[in-house]
């Protein structure tokens, strides 16, 4: 079995070769599936990653969620602690700035509050997933640490292209599975 590092590198390289036309088409299908979830009927607070490079594009989804009146939170990196914070955003154009690792993050002035302990849904990024909901992220462990601390009561959702769901990889004690994986072709409930 390949190591997580080799799997990460292989799949990120594969993902980098997908055309933006496909990314946009698949992202729309994934986000539409998310918006059709029954679970959205009973939630208020949704945290989502801010997409970069060839990840599933979350920008249109976040704009839609804000327009529909959800409280939307975005992560920011707390590098010295090796984890994430979360701040509410109301406007993607005004509330985000360049952050750590080239990711868009909430502006510093929005980060003055503790992470809400009642996040309803957390949408997490990843390079590759198993059908059991385990993920290989980008290697920093930021999301696993965040989910261990703040995700116990939240529905953990992954957005992933079908191609990046694989049968198996080494799972470690600190790895936290998601509850739902949404791809362009299916919804996998764990």
Automatic annotation (TrEMBL):
GO terms for biological process: folic acid-containing compound biosynthetic process; tetrahydrofolate interconversion. Pfam families: 5-FTHF_cyc-lig. Its EC number is 6.3.3.2. It catalyses: (6S)-5-formyl-5,6,7,8-tetrahydrofolate + ATP = (6R)-5,10-methenyltetrahydrofolate + ADP + phosphate. GO terms for molecular function: 5-formyltetrahydrofolate cyclo-ligase activity; ATP binding; metal ion binding. It is an enzyme of class 6 (ligase). The keyword Oxidoreductase does not apply. Its cofactor is Mg(2+). ATP binds at residues 4-8, 135-143. Substrate binds at residues 50, 55. Keywords: ATP-binding, Magnesium, Metal-binding, Nucleotide-binding. Belongs to the 5-formyltetrahydrofolate cyclo-ligase family. This is 5-formyltetrahydrofolate cyclo-ligase. It comes from Halanaerobium hydrogeniformans (Halanaerobium sp. (strain sapolanicus)).
């Amino acid at each position: 079995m390949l190591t997580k590092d080799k799997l990460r590198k292989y799949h990120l390289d594969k993902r980098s070769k997908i055309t933006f036309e496909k990314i946009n088409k698949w992202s729309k299908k994934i986000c539409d599936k998310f918006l059709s979830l029954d679970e959205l009927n009973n939630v208020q607070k949704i945290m989502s990653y801010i997409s970069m490079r060839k990840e599933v594009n979350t920008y249109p989804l976040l704009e839609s969620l804000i327009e529909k009146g959800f409280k939307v939170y975005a992560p920011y990196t707390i590098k010295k602690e090796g984890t994430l914070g979360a701040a509410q955003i109301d406007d993607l154009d005004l509330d985000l700035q360049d952050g750590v690792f080239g990711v868009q993050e909430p502006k510093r002035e929005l980060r003055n509050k503790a992470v809400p302990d009642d996040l309803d849904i957390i949408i997490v990024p990843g390079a590759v997933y198993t059908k059991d909901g385990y993920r290989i992220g980008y290697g920093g462990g930021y999301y696993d640490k965040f989910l261990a601390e703040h995700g116990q009561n939240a529905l953990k959702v992954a957005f992933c292209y079908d191609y990046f769901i694989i049968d198996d990889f080494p799972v470690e004690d600190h790895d936290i599975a998601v509850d739902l994986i949404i791809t362009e072709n299916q919804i996998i409930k764990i």
